[in-house]
Each structure stands twice: as C-alpha cells, then as structure tokens.
Specification:
Belongs to the 5-formyltetrahydrofolate cyclo-ligase family. Keywords: ATP-binding, Magnesium, Metal-binding, Nucleotide-binding. Its cofactor is Mg(2+). This protein has 197 residues and is α/β, with parallel strands linked by helices. The chain has a single domain, classed as NagB/RpiA/CoA transferase-like (Rossmann fold, 3-Layer(aba) Sandwich), CATH 3.40.50. It has five helices and nine strands. β8 and β9 form a beta hairpin. It starts with 9 loop residues before the first strand and ends in an 8-residue tail after the last strand. Bound molecules: ligand FFO and adenosine-5'-triphosphate.
Length: 197
C-alpha cells in the first residue's frame, strides 16, 4: 500500500486463527528469498500462488458462524491492545464479506466513537496504487467495482476534497492490514495485486 507515514507505524495483521499456519506450511522458507534483480523469484511466485489457492479453499470451508466468531475474537483482541488504545490516527480496511475478510466494523465504529481519526483505502488505478482517505461518516460509503469494496466519496458533503493521510500533519499510528493469510510472526500474504508494497 503506498501510504507513506512519517513515524514508526504499528502494524497489526489479523486473520482467522484456523488459517494462521497456512502460509508457513505452504511457503516453507521462500518468503525470505529476494532475487538480485529485485523481482520475485519464479519459485516463490508459484509457492505464493499455491498458498493463495489453499487459503481460499480453507476460507470457503469456514461457516458464517465461524467467520463471525473469529472476527469477534480478533476485534476483542485489537480493542484491548495498547497500540490501539494509544492510537490517535488509524488506517483501517473496510472488510469485504464476499472475500471472507475479517470483519472490521466493530473496530471502526469504536475508533470513530473514541474520536480517533480514521483513514480507509481507496483504489486509485489499475496499477494497484491507492490512497488512504479520511472517514468520519459511514453514509459517504459506496461499493466500487471491480471488487465491490466499500470506499468513501472523493469529497466531503460540502464538496471539499476528502483529506488524504499523506497531506495530513497527523500520520497513522496504527494500520490494520487486509490480507489473505498471515503466519504467527505476522508475515503477510496478500492477494497478489502488489498494492501493499
Ligand atoms: N477490504 C479490502 N479493501 C482493500 C483491499 C483489500 O484487500 N481488502 N486492498 C488491498 O490491497 C485494496 C484493493 N485491492 C484488491 C485486490 C484484489 C481484490 C480481489 O478481489 N481479488 C480476487 C482475485 C481477483 C483476480 O484474480 O482477478 C481474489 O483475491 O480472490 C480485491 C481488492 C484496497 N482496499
Ligand atoms: N521476494 C521478493 N523479491 C523481490 N520482489 C518481491 C519479492 N516478494 C514480493 N516482491 C515484489 O512485491 C510485489 C508484491 O508481491 P505479491 O504480489 O506477492 O504481494 P502480496 O503478498 O500478494 O501483497 P499485495 O498484493 O496485497 O500487495 C511483487 O510484484 C514483487 O514486485
């Protein structure tokens, strides 16, 4: 995600616990490989594809009740974290149920209630560039193709441009990352779009 921040950023990755081991099982050690050309080694690309396929299959097998339970546990965990409680400004994704992502609603609602400044991702273009825009009112959200993920409008109701975190004097203290899978040390596997690089 091309969201530069000017202070050390605390990153919390969350995924249903049933999935936490998937990434390391399917990608034993290759996650640490970096080719000298700065491109992803073919072997690693293939291992990631295989891991994505396996994880998506596991996600499909979770029931709605399991998803809701795991999301509730993750929300409880996040809400109890000092990093969260201390954060004045947070980046948070708006989960997509169709993609079986961890539900962020409760954290977002709590953050807004607590007066934390929230920024959410908005896809810029087909090159996976994205911005983090300020969100203070859920009524400005609409589903945007092709992924049908909720995004805020570019402007506030009064027509002024919605604030981009990069133009803000208060950088993100905490970022809640969407991801397909995470291992127990927090290493993340995304959907392959490269937006989070
Ligand atoms: N909720 C949410 N918001 C987000 C992200 C995200 O992962 N989750 N993104 C994080 O960067 C950005 C959007 N990027 C996305 C990239 C791919 C897909 C997606 O649906 N991928 C399909 C495969 C599509 C294909 O292969 O053509 C999939 O993974 O099944 C969704 C969002 C910004 N906002
Ligand atoms: N080991 C690596 N060596 C060099 N470049 C890498 C390596 N891993 C990833 N990259 C670079 O990062 C980009 C994103 O990698 P990848 O598509 O696997 O990300 P992801 O985990 O799916 O995350 P997301 O798609 O959400 O950003 C790749 O296109 C590649 O340019």
């Amino acid at each position: 995600m091309r969201a530069a921040v000017s202070s050390p950023l605390r990153c919390i990755s969350s995924a249903p616990s049933a999935l936490l081991r998937s990434v390391t099982r399917v990608i034993p050690s290759a996650v640490n490989l970096v080719s000298s050309a700065g491109t992803m080694p073919v072997e690693l690309r293939e291992q990631k594809q295989q891991a994505r396929k396996a994880i998506k299959q596991q996600l499909r097998e979770l029931t709605a009740e399991q998803m809701a339970d795991e999301s509730a546990r993750i929300a409880d965990h996040v809400l109890g974290l000092r990093a969260y409680r201390d954060a004045k400004t947070i980046g948070i994704y708006l989960h997509c149920a169709k993609l079986r992502e961890v539900d962020t609603t409760r954290v977002l609602e709590d953050a807004m209630r607590q007066g934390k400044r929230c920024y959410v991702p908005v896809v810029e273009d087909s090159n996976s560039n994205m911005r983090f825009l300020h969100l203070d009112d859920l009524s400005c959200l609409r589903r945007v193709p092709p992924f049908d993920i909720l995004e805020p409008t570019d402007t506030y109701p009064d027509g002024s441009p919605r604030q981009d975190v990069l133009g803000s004097r208060t950088p993100l203290d905490l970022l809640l990352m969407p991801g397909l899978g995470f291992d127990r040390s927090g290493r993340r596997l995304g959907r392959g779009g490269g937006g989070a690089v």
